[in-house]
Amino acid sequence: MNGNNEHPKAKFVINNIVDTDDNPFDRQERIAWWDQEKLKNARVMVVGAGAIGNETLKNLALLGIGNIFIVDFDTISTSNLSRTVLFRQADKGKKKAEIAALRTKEMSLLEDANVSWFHGDAVWDLGTGVFRSMDIVLGCLDNVETRLGTNRQCWLAKTPWIDSGIYELGGHVSVFIPPEPPCYQCGASNEQLIAARKRYSCDDFKRSVLDEGKMPTVQITSSIISAIQVQEAIKFLCGQRVESGKKIYFQGRINDFAVLGLPKNENCDVHGTSYPEIIPLPLSSSVKLKDFLEYVTQDQYSGADASLDFRSDRTFVVSVSCNSCGSKIEMYKPTFRIFDTEIICGECKQKGIQANSELMAEKQIEVCFNLLKTDEKILDMSLSELGIPNRHVVAVYDKHNNYKYYELSEDTSIFQTC
C-alpha cells in the first residue's frame, strides 16, 4: 500500500454509485424491450378527460410519458367525482381538460414533463395538423360522433389511435394503425352512424336541446379498460408488435376476455384517405381569408387565381330562410356554430313562433373561396371565423384544378401548458 492508500495495481476507479431505488422507473426498465427514453420523448394525445381519461392520464404520468396533450369540451360535475381520480369536490364546474392537465403534471415523475390542454370540441376545433404532431392518440370517449371524427383525422394524419369504451362492468379497446385497414368507421353500424348525428338537426345545425343518455358504469371498469389501452400504447411506443384492427373485449360480470377481429369495409371512405403531401405555411387560423389567399396565390405555392376548398370538410352558411315566413336571415357562420333556434327571424320570434328543427330551411352556402369571386365581407373574415380550426390542413386548388394541401403551422396557442 502506498502513502495515500491507493493500490498500485488498481485498474479502475468508482466515480459514483447509483441507487436504483432513486429511479422511479427502475422496475419497468428491467423489462427487456422497455425504452424509457422513447416514452419520455413520446407525444400522446388523450381525447376525453372523463372516467377512462382520468385513469389513462394517471397511467401515462406514472409511466414517464414526456409530452401529454389533453382535449375535452366538458366541465366537471358531481357525478364525475366517483369515477375520476384527478378531480376533487372543489373542482365542480371547472374545465375537465384544464384540471386534468394540472393534476397530471403534479403526478408526473418527470421534472420536465410537458402537459398541455385544450378546452374545445375535438370534432370541429382541432385541426389535422394537431393529430399529425402526435405519436399516438388515445380515445377515452363516450360518443360515436367524436370517435368517427378522431378516426377520420388520424387516418388523414396517418397517426395511430386506440379507442376505448365502457358499459356497466364491461369494456373494449381497439387499436387502429393507418394506413392498414380496418378503421373504426369500417365496423360502425347504422345505429351508430345515426347516433353520431344526434346533436344535429336535419339542416346540420346544432340542436339547442339535447337529451343525452348517461352511460351506466363504475370506476373499476374504467381502470381495467384504461390499463389495457395504455398497455397497448406503451408496447407501440417501445417498438413492440401491436395487433391492429382487433377489439380486446372484457366482460367483468362473468370475467370473460376475448379478442375479436374487426370487419374491413372495402367501400369505407375513410381508410383510403390521406394527404399525398402537406406543405407547412407560416400562417395561423387568425389570418384573414383575403391575406391567406394572397399568400397562396404566390407562384411558389398555388399561383394566381387559386381557391380555398372546404372539400366537404365543413360548410360556411351565408344566409338561411326563416323556418316560418321564409324571409332571409344573414348568418355568416360555419354550419356547426349555428343552432336550430337561430333559423327563425326576429319578427316570427316576437309572435311566439318556434323553429321546427325537423324542417329543412333554404340556405346559401359557400365551400370555395377565391380572391376575385368571393364577397368582400367574407374575404375580411379570419379563417377561424370561417370555421377553420387551429393547425388545420387546408385544401387549395389552382386554375388547372390541381390540389395542394397546406398546414397552418404557426398555430401554437392551442397548446395551453400547465
Q: Your description of this structure?
A:
By secondary structure, the chain is an alpha/beta fold. The protein folds into two domains: 20-261, Rossmann fold (3-Layer(aba) Sandwich), CATH 3.40.50; 278-417, no CATH class. Helices cover 24% and strands 21% of the residues. It contains twelve helices and 17 strands. It has helices spanning 26-29, 36-41, 51-63, 96-107, 128-132, 144-157, 190-195, 219-237, 289-296, 346-350, 376-379, 383-386; strands at 43-47, 67-72, 114-119, 136-140, 161-167, 170-176, 246-251, 256-261, 278-281, 307-309, 316-321, 328-334, 363-366, 368-370, 393-397, 403-408, 416-417. It is globular, with a radius of gyration of 25 Å. The model is unreliable at 1-8 and 14-18 (pLDDT under 50).
In short:
This protein is of the alpha/beta class and 418 residues long. It has 12 helices and 17 strands.
Task: State the secondary-structure class.
Answer: alpha/beta
According to DSSP, the number of beta strands is: 17
Instruction: Provide the CATH superfamily of the largest domain.
Output: NAD(P)-binding Rossmann-like Domain
Give the DSSP E fraction (strand runs of 2 or more residues).
15-25%
Could you tell me the mean pLDDT? 91
The percent of residues in helical segments reads 10-25%
Q: Over all CA atoms, what is the radius of gyration?
A: 25 Å
CATH architecture of the largest domain: 3-Layer(aba) Sandwich
Which H/E pattern describes the elements?
HHEHEHEHEHEEHHEEEHEEEHEEHHEEE
Number of helices: 12
Please report the first level of CATH classification, the CATH class of the largest domain. Alpha Beta
Report the major sheet: 9 strands, mixed
Number of domains: 2
Alpha-carbon distance between the two ends = 58 Å
- In the predicted model, the low-confidence regions spanning at least 5 consecutive residues are 1-8, 14-18
